[in-house]
Write a structure and sequence with these properties.
Blueprint (H helix, E strand, L loop, with lengths): L11 E11 L2 E8 L2 H9 L5 H8 L4 E7 L5 H9 L3 H4 L4 H24 L3
Antiparallel strand pairs: 1-2, 1-3
Length: about 120
């Protein structure tokens, strides 16, 4: 049941990128009915435990992407189910796309060699 004290029409799902990975984590995905207030809580150490640990480790972070408004916690859950934050991150995706392109070129080169018999 939706909480009556939250204005769902202004909700935002946001993706945080950590400047340095922490134990394999480099992103945090969250939902806020008021993004500025939520980010303030994160900065004050009253947000998520992961952001608090990141800050205590001296790692900088920034919001790199948002969805909405309007968005709801259901949108956040759908994005989390994708398990694909790196591909959704504009700072990480170019590198991933470049790696995919390089791998594809290498696969094509190997296929050509197989067909021609050259080595």
């Amino acid at each position: 049941m939706p909480r009556a004290d939250i204005d769902w029409s202004n909700g935002v799902v946001y993706l945080v990128h950590f400047d340095t990975p922490y134990k394999g984590a480099q992103h945090y995905l969250g939902y806020a009915s008021n993004l500025e207030a939520r980010l303030k809580r994160h900065r004050e150490g009253r947000g998520s435990n992961l952001i608090k640990v990141i800050q205590n480790a001296g790692i900088d972070w920034k919001v790199v992407r948002t969805w909405g408004p309007p968005a709801s916690p259901k949108v956040e859950a759908e994005i989390k189910r994708m398990h694909n934050n790196k591909m959704l991150c504009p700072l990480c995706a170019p590198g991933y796309n470049r790696m995919k392109a390089e791998n594809l070129k290498e696969k094509r080169r190997l296929l050509r060699l197989e067909r021609t018999g050259d080595s």
